[in-house]
Design a protein that fits this description.
heterodimer, A: 115 residues, mainly alpha, Arc Repressor Mutant, subunit A, two-stranded antiparallel ribbon, 5 helices, elongated, B: 309 residues, 2 domains, 80% helix, globular
Chain lengths: 115, 309
Amino acid sequence: MPGPRHTTTRVNDPPVLILTSLASGPKHGYALMQDIEGFAGVRLGPGSLYGAISRLEERGLIEPLGTVSRTRPYQLTDAGREALEAALVGLRTVVDEATTRLARAPRVALAGGCS
Amino acid sequence: MTDIAIRGLLRLYPRAWRVRYGDELAGLILQASGGRGPSMRLSTNVALAGVRERLRAVGLLGNDLTPGDRTQSGVLLVLWSWMLFVLGGIGVQKAAEHWTAAVPATKAGVPEVAFGVLVVVAAIGSVLVLAGIAYGARAFAPFLGAGGWGHIRRPIYRASAITALTAIGLLTLSIWAHHLTVAQRNGHTPAYSAAVLIWALLFAGCLFTWAAAAVSAVRYLNLKPRLLTIETRIAAAVTATMATMTIASAIWWAAVAHSAPWFFAGTPAGTRGTVAPINLLIPVALMLTATLLASLGTRRSLHNARLMA
């Protein structure tokens, strides 16, 4: 996951959503789908979800638990936790910047066009 | 039925991916669809993700493979596209037969130039593709010397068998055609038309099995960056010839449609009819699709060739 200075992370990126969901504990695919829909309002399709899961596992950011089964849970690794923290720093930078700019900009100027 | 549908969707994924995640994804599809079988939306999501995984596996998407492998994949996509383009080009050539007789001499300038460009650039493109294959073949000698024939013999045998069938078919058709009139050769003998169609399919199979053989062979080769860079440049030039031919075909089509629209309908001069017959629409669509795919391949290989250096 890229660092905050050159981040392209979006709030609704499937990897970020999965890492965020797993931050509260291990979950299998269907539980991930429901949790993500609950906190982000994003319904990931099974294909998108498993595409992201396979990528995250390849990069060592998550790992499967237990034996192979149709409802195998995944958990965050230490690297995954660090990656999520880095992504959050990036997102927070944008949020803070937007908040600051909005606070400084008078409403009239926003409506009046570019400066 | 549900199991069959899910198995069909999983077939879209690469084998290695299926072995690792197939069961889990199947379970998730069942849960997400409430056991009723995948909906159209869910199926589309799973199918598109499968195609993405396949593209990733061959290096046409993402950064999972090395820049060298990604460059090679881009070049191979251009080769596949060229094969598709050739099929379209043959269709255009067939649909354009005797067009000069239909267009008034005073209005033949633009279509003549456009068709001339098409023919000349087709020759240049063919030479470039052959040069690319010949240059890449230099890496084969060490591979074959190291016992590589065993890995690639099956696709090469398959392509050789289809090529032999295609050659026999062409010879048979030529002998048959000698005993037919022009009208009989142009749709008035159903058996002959069916045989021509079968031969065209064989020819397409011939092109694609050789492309598949080349692709499967290249996967075993360790191509050096310099060779890949040169192949990338050749692929870019081939893509440029494809774009030029597609534009030339479109100009020729528009010019003939303007000056002799009866040519496309096959009706007497001066009459009106369709200027977009299916036997021209499909080949031009193939050419356009192939050009777009080749552009994607070239973009991929040029970008990654820079990373390789």
